[in-house]
Amino acid sequence: MEECGITFEDTSVIIKRIISSNGKNKVLLNQQVSTVATLTKFAQYWLDVTSQHGQQKLTDPLAQIEMLDQAGDYQDVLAVYQQRYIQLRSKKQELQSLLTKKEKAQAEKDFLTFQWQELSKAQLQIGQLEELQNQYSRIKNGKEIADLVGNIYRQISGDHGVMPQISQTLRSVEKLAKLDTDFEPYITQISDISVTLQELASQAQQLRATMGMSESEADELNSRISFLQKIEKKYGSVEQAVAKRDEIKAKLDLVSEESDVQWQLEKTISAMEELLQKEAQTLTAKRKKNANTLSKAITAEVQYLGMQDAKIDIQCQDWDADTSGLTIGDKKYHLLGAEKIVFMFAPNVGEGSLELTAIASGGEISRVMLAIKSVAIQKSGSFDKTYLFDEVDTGVGGQTAERIGQRMHVLASQEAQVLNVTHLAQVAAYADRHAKVMKETKQGRTTTKIIFLTSEERKAELARMIGGIELTKKTFAFATELLEKKDKDALTPGQGRL
Fold it and tell me: Taking CA 180 as the corner, what is the angle to CA 177 and CA 182, rounded to the nearest 5 degrees?
């Protein structure tokens, strides 16, 4: 929540969603504006939905793994495996990127070699062009510079220059400062002026001494400037040419025998593959043990739910579906392991097992989904969630429907909040509270509302669910019987428990 910018003072979270008639909607988490995506992400921690469309999970290999792992006690092993997998995938991507660059560099090797030779022979130095241009400017304007330098030196250090006068002035101020301390600051200021002028005279003298250059030296200097200007025009600047030279050198190193980057990466990847294989084997062993235990528990549960001869066999098979995963040798790996989980189903004695989704009817799959969820909740002890079952009793009736109601009542009695959407009275009768969803049309508008039923209203609603529009004494009697049976089952220890 905090990662999404949602703050809270305690463990309570208030969710509010406003859906307007104009189609716009707003999501508020703890009175803070959020998004549907954030709400969906947050909901996975407190809401678990099982619906008739949830059958699709049984065709999703990754979803089947999650269903198996939900009832397991090896989350620490899975976490270590996933960490190894992500690290190995990253290294493999790094190697692939290197190989791509190397392949490209190999194709461009001749051109890169030409560029490297040109830039290497140029002996480029950052700032050299500006320095040479400044030097050439001195030569070009030699007479004027010489005259100016001579004048500066004479005006500062000549017989009639300012330095003798400044020295004399400094001595006078020093004597005055002994008599009046207010003049002491001027001593430092005059001294600084003296030092600055001396430095200027010295610099002028040095420049005057270097003014002499032969004609051939001047031509050579001009030629170097012209060459650097061509480099600048071609690459943007001398600095960019230097950067290009270093970049080309790195690319050529990739295709040279001197580079060991690829070898080091391949060595690291080989070691990481061994670690991943080891963790995958440990995870697979844990899953097979859990699959065996879970198969027996789910088989017992589906038999309780009306399929007396049915058998569930959860199998761990080699993963072969995801081309985006990792391959080590002839074995494939993905983020959740090295296997796919397949729910095999044998509906009757003497019949072989086939994949559940290929052989089971809609009603059978609904019961299997409920059985899986019931067993997983019991084994994981995840009673701090709200479990929503949306018409999972589709295609069943009679005693089977009654047992589905009993199962949900058991889950609800173990501190888990269970919500169920159903059209079967046998299921609805086992609820602690009964809410009715109603649609009303007024003034050309249809509205939907939910009302909680009183004891008498509930009995009438169950009778309607049993007998349809016309209610009779028999339907009322049956509704009363269902409620009484529910109360009786609640008082019977172990009724409907796993």
Answer: 80
Please give the Cα distance from 268 to 214 (Å, whole number): 61
Separation of alpha carbons 96 and 102, rounded Å: 10
List the structure tokens of 370: 């409920």
Distance CA 194, CA 369 (A): 97
Backbone angles phi, psi at 429, to 5 degrees: -65, -25
Task: Report which of 424, 423, 452, 447 is spatially closest to residue 436, judged by C-alpha positions.
Answer: 452
Residue given tokens 């999970």 in the structure block = 57
Q: Give CA–CA dist 471/474, Å, rounded.
A: 8
Which residue in 298, 480, 271 sits closest to 407, CA to CA? Answer: 298
In contact, 428 and 486? CB cutoff 8 Å: no
Task: Specify whether the CB–CB gap between 30 and 38 falls below 8 A.
Answer: no
What are the residues facing 13 on neighbouring strands? none
Nearest CA to 412 out of 394, 390, 392, 389 is that of 389
Contact present, 52 and 392 (Cβ < 8 Å): yes
Where residue 379 falls (left for φ over 0; alpha for ψ -120 to 50; beta otherwise) is alpha
Tens of pLDDT along the chain (498 residues) come to 566 666 767 677 888 888 887 778 888 888 888 888 888 888 777 787 877 666 666 777 777 888 888 888 899 999 999 999 999 999 999 999 888 887 776 777 777 778 777 777 777 767 667 766 666 666 555 556 656 766 776 777 776 778 788 887 888 888 888 888 888 888 888 888 878 878 877 777 666 555 555 556 556 666 777 777 777 777 777 788 788 888 888 777 766 654 578 888 999 999 999 999 999 999 999 999 999 999 999 999 888 888 888 899 999 988 876 667 899 988 999 999 999 888 888 888 877 888 887 777 777 777 788 888 888 777 766 667 788 888 877 777 788 888 888 888 888 877 778 899 998 999 999 999 999 998 888 888 888 889 999 999 999 999 998 887 778 888 889 989 998 888 776 545 444 444
Cα–Cα distance, 385 to 380 (Å, whole number) = 12
Kindly give the interhelix angle for 184-209 and 142-157, rounded to the nearest 10 degrees. Answer: 150
Helix (H) or strand (E) holding 103: helix 75-107
Give the N- to C-terminal CA distance of the chain in Å, as an integer: 35
Q: What are phi and psi of 256, to 5 degrees?
A: -100, 160
